[in-house]
C-alpha cells in the first residue's frame, strides 16, 4: 500500500499524517481517548455534586473547608499538567496517557474509601495531578495523529463522547439519594466507579500506537515506520482530504525557537488564567448557587445533572462547524455568549429557567474548552506540543484553584449576581487578550 511505502521512507519532517485517509485505527484511538476523557470530566464535574452535598444539612461543613475540597483537584493539576506534559514530549504521548489513568485509578479509590474529610481533600489533590494533565495530553496526541482536514470534528467528537461521563455520574448519585449500598454513601460509590473506569481505559491505551509524528521528532524512525504501518493495515473509513497550508501566524518550522515558544506560552498562560472563572466557576459552584437560591440539595443535583446534557448536544453540533470558523473568532463569540447567560442564570429563580439557562451555559462552556485546548495544541510544534499545551493548562488549573476560594465566599456574602458579575468581567478581559495577541489558529490546517 502507498501508505506503507510512505512510512518506510518517512523523515522527521515528512510524516504524512495530515493527509491520511480516516481509518478504523483513528476511530479506535478516538474512542479510547473519549472514554478516558469521560471519567476525567466526571471527576472534575463531581465538584458540583460535592458543593451541593456539603453545603446543606446533614452534611454541611464550614465554607472554608468546602472551598479547599473544591479547589484540591485544581491545586494538584498545577503541578501535574506541566510535569506530565514535559514527560510526554520526552517519553511519548501514549505512555503518559496510560500512566495518568493509572494515577486516577489509585487516587479515586483512595477518595472513595477516605476515612475523614482531610484524607478526602488529600486524594482529590492527588487525583488532580493526573486529571489536569489528561485533557492537554489527549488533545496533543489527537492533534499529532488525526488528518488535518478532519482534526477539528474528530477532536470534538471525542470530547462529545466524553461529556457522557458527568451526567452519568451525577444521575447515579441522584438516583441513589440517601441509600448506602454496602454501607457506602452515593458520593463514595461515584469515586469507585470513576476509578474502575479509569483502570479500564489504562488497559485500552496499551493497545494504542504511539504518535508517529512524535517518534520522528525524537529521531526514532523505525518505530515511526512501524506505527505508520499500523494505520496502513487498518481499513479505511473515509477518503484522503488535502490539508490547508500552515497559517502565516502559526509555527511552520519543524522546531520552534525558544523566543517563539516563550511568546506563545506567555499569551496562552494569560488566556488560560482568565478562562476558569467562567468554565470552572459555573460547573463547580452551580450546586452551591442553587442551594443559595433556596433549592434543596437533592433537587440541586437534579438541576446540575440536566444542565450537563448541554455539552453533549452542543459539541455534536459544533463538530460540524469547528473547522469552518477561525479558532480565535470562535473563542470570542463563545466567551461573549457565556457572559450573557451567566448573568441571566444569576437573575432567574424558577426551575425551568434555571435548568434551561444552565444547560445553555454548559453547552457554550464545553464547546469553548475543547476549542481552546485544540487552539493551544496547534500553536506549538511537535517537539514542544504537549509541554506548551500542558503549561498553559497548568495556568488554567491555577486559576481554577482560585475560583472556589474567591467566588464561594463572594456568593455567600453578596449573592449570585455579584459572583456572575466577576465571571462576566473576566470573560471580557479574555476577549480583549485573544483579539490583541492571539493567532488565528490552525482550523483544518497542517501542523508542524
Please give the CATH class: Mainly Alpha
Number of domains: 1
**Assembly state:** single chain
SS summary, helix count: 19
What is the overall silhouette? globular
Task: Give a short account of the largest sheet.
Answer: none
State which percent range the strand residues make up. under 5%
Distance between the termini: 25 Å
* Counted beta strands: 0
Which homologous superfamily in CATH is the superfamily? MFS general substrate transporter like domains
CATH architecture: Up-down Bundle
Helix content: over 70%
What is CATH's topology name?
Growth Hormone, Chain: A
pLDDT < 50 stretches: 1-13
Mean pLDDT: 80
Rg over CA atoms, rounded to whole Å, is: 21 Å
Topology pattern, helix = H, strand = E: HHHHHHHHHHHHHHHHHHH
Structural class: mainly alpha
Summarize the structure in words.
There is one protein chain. By secondary structure, the protein is mostly helical. It has one domain (2-437): Growth Hormone, Chain: A, CATH 1.20.1250.20. It has 19 helices and no strands. Helix 3 (63-91) packs parallel to helix 5, helix 7 (151-162) packs across helix 17 and helix 13 (276-292) runs parallel beside helix 18 (385-414). It is globular. It starts with a helix and ends in an 11-residue tail after the last helix. Residues 1-13 have low confidence and may be disordered.
Amino acid at each position: 500500500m502507498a501508505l506503507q511505502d510512505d512510512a518506510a521512507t518517512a523523515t522527521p519532517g515528512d510524516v504524512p499524517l495530515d493527509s491520511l485517509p480516516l481509518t478504523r485505527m483513528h476511530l479506535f484511538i478516538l474512542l479510547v481517548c473519549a472514554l478516558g476523557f469521560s471519567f476525567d470530566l466526571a471527576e472534575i464535574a463531581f465538584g458540583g455534586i460535592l458543593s451541593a452535598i456539603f453545603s446543606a444539612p446533614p452534611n454541611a461543613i464550614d465554607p472554608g473547608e468546602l472551598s479547599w475540597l473544591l479547589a484540591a483537584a485544581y491545586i494538584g493539576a498545577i503541578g501535574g499538567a506541566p510535569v506530565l506534559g514535559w514527560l510526554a514530549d520526552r517519553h511519548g504521548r501514549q505512555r503518559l496517557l496510560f500512566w495518568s489513568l493509572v494515577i486516577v485509578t489509585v487516587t479515586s479509590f483512595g477518595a472513595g474509601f477516605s476515612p475523614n474529610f482531610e484524607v478526602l481533600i488529600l486524594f482529590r489533590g492527588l487525583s488532580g495531578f493526573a486529571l489536569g494533565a489528561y485533557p492537554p495530553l489527549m488533545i496533543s496526541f489527537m492533534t499529532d495523529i488525526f488528518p488535518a482536514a478532519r482534526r477539528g470534528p474528530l477532536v470534538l467528537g471525542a470530547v462529545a463522547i466524553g461529556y457522557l461521563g458527568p451526567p452519568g455520574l451525577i444521575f447515579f448519585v441522584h438516583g441513589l439519594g440517601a441509600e448506602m449500598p454496602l454501607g457506602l454513601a452515593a458520593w463514595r460509590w461515584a469515586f469507585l466507579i470513576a476509578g474502575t473506569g479509569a483502570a479500564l481505559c489504562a488497559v485500552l491505551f496499551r493497545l494504542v500506537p504511539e504518535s508517529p509524528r512524535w517518534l520522528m521528532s525524537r529521531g526514532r524512525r523505525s518505530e515511526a515506520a512501524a506505527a505508520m504501518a499500523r494505520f496502513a493495515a487498518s481499513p479505511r473509513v473515509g477518503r484522503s482530504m488535502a490539508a490547508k497550508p500552515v497559517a502565516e501566524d502559526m509555527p511552520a518550522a519543524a522546531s520552534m525557537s525558544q523566543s517563539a515558544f516563550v511568546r506563545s506560552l506567555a499569551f496562552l498562560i494569560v488566556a488560560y488564567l482568565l478562562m476558569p472563572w467562567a468554565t470552572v466557576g459555573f460547573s463547580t459552584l452551580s450546586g452551591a448557587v442553587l442551594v443559595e437560591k433556596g433549592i434543596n440539595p437533592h433537587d440541586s443535583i437534579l438541576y446540575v445533572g440536566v444542565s450537563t446534557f448541554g455539552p453533549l448536544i452542543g459539541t455534536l453540533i459544533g463538530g460540524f462547524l469547528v473547522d469552518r470558523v477561525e479558532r480565535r473568532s470562535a473563542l470570542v463569540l463563545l466567551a461573549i455568549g457565556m457572559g450573557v447567560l451567566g448573568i441571566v442564570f444569576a437573575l432567574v429563580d424558577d426551575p425551568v429557567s434555571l435548568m434551561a439557562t444552565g444547560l445553555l451555559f454548559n453547552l457554550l462552556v464545553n464547546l469553548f474548552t475543547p476549542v481552546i485546548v485544540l487552539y493551544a495544541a496547534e500553536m506549538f510544534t511537535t517537539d514542544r506540543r504537549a509541554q506548551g499545551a500542558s503549561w498553559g493548562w497548568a495556568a488554567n488549573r491555577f486559576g481554577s484553584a482560585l475560583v472556589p476560594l474567591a467566588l464561594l465566599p463572594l456568593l455567600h456574602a453578596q449573592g449570585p449576581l455579584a459572583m456572575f458579575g466577576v465571571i462576566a468581567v473576566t470573560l471580557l478581559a479574555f476577549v480583549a487578550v485573544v483579539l490583541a495577541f492571539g493567532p488565528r489558529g490552525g482550523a483544518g490546517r497542517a501542523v508542524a
